[in-house]
Amino acid sequence: MKIITTLFFTTFLGYTCILAQDLYDYDVEERISALGIELKEASPPVANYVNSVRTGNLVFMAGKGPSKPEGGYVAGKVGADLSIDEGYQAARLTAIAQLSALKAEIGDLNKVVRVVKVLGMVNATPDFTNHPEVINGFSDLIVEVFGDRGKHARAAVGMGSLPRNIAVEIEMIVEVRD
After folding, report:
1. I want to staple 128 with a disulfide (CB 3.0 to 4.6 A). Which of 28, 79, 100, 163 is the partner?
2. What's the pLDDT at 2?
3. How many CA atoms lie within 13 A of 168 on its CB side?
4. Residue 108 Cα to chain centre, angstroms
């Protein structure tokens, strides 16, 4: 009986310590700034939906496209109008758009416990098969920002077209803490 009580007590204290500690040994938003990234006000939805839905500790982010800093979107089909590297850069811009929308939802990106799942859609020619290399632009930036907590499950798929001919559209699911 004493052994069980001691194990329960130790486990309970260990759990309490985990809840009290910071998730990161750095400030996520300072890291974003150090990467030369400026988050902008999240763009409003263009139809009857919202940028994000939070249920419990999960935030489901609507699909975002590659917003250029000077305005507009990176458009075109990868494999015809855009190279793999240009698609990669478009996916990286999409990560910035998603981080902006996520910050608007949760207020402080240091609350991100884990980026759980990413769905990356590439506007590509029918013969293009390097979708993962394009979506790596998104994933690489997310890991640069959140470290191991940014490593996520992912799908990278090709599409015959995307809204407004954008090069990529990416949605994600993120676990956050209060």
Report:
1. 79
2. 36
3. 39
4. 14
